[in-house]
Amino acid sequence: MCLAIPGKIERIVGDNPLTRTGRINFGGVIKEASLAYVPEALAGDYVIVHAGFALSRVDEAEAKKVFEYLKRMEEFSELQEDGP
Fold first, then answer.
1. In this model, does residue 84 exceed pLDDT 70?
2. Using CA atoms, how far apart are residues 51 and 69, in angstroms rounded to an integer?
3. What gap in Å lies between CA 8 and CA 39, rounded to an integer?
4. Residues 22-52: tens digit of each pLDDT
5. Structural domain of residue 51, as residue ranges?
6. Are 41 and 9 spatial neighbours (Cβ–Cβ below 8 Å)?
7. Widest CA span of the chain, in angstroms?
8. Residue 52 region, left (φ>0) first, then alpha (ψ -120 to 50), else beta?
């Protein structure tokens, strides 16, 4: 299963709306993503990214909620791995 996850745009490269990319911070993991679908996005904005494309903007509070859910999922999977 593939998930779209939020990330914070650290830096934007390029001016052409179809080819500009962003350096996206996913809680410490930095990746490049296309910003073609979110021409209104600016550095400092949070975006939902799937398969290398930012799909939409999301507010910071919502992004932090998702990060917390992902952290809890990680902790839960670690508990399952230690089980019988």
1. no
2. 20
3. 15
4. 999 988 889 999 999 999 999 999 999 999 9
5. 5-82
6. yes
7. 55
8. left
Burial class (CB in 10 A: 0-12, 13-18, 19+), 49: buried
How far is CA 42 from its chain centroid?
A: 14
Quote the pTM value. Answer: 0.82
Count of C-beta atoms within a 10 Å radius of residue 39: 10
- Cα–Cα distance measured from residue 20 to residue 39, given in angstroms and rounded to the nearest whole number: 9
Alpha helices (H) along 1-84 = 60-82
The predicted pLDDT at position 74 comes to 79
- The full DSSP string for 43-64 is TT-EEEEETTEEEEEE-HHHHH
Pick the residue with more confidence: 4 or 53?
53
- The domain total for the chain is 1
Give the domain CATH number at 59: 2.30.30.140
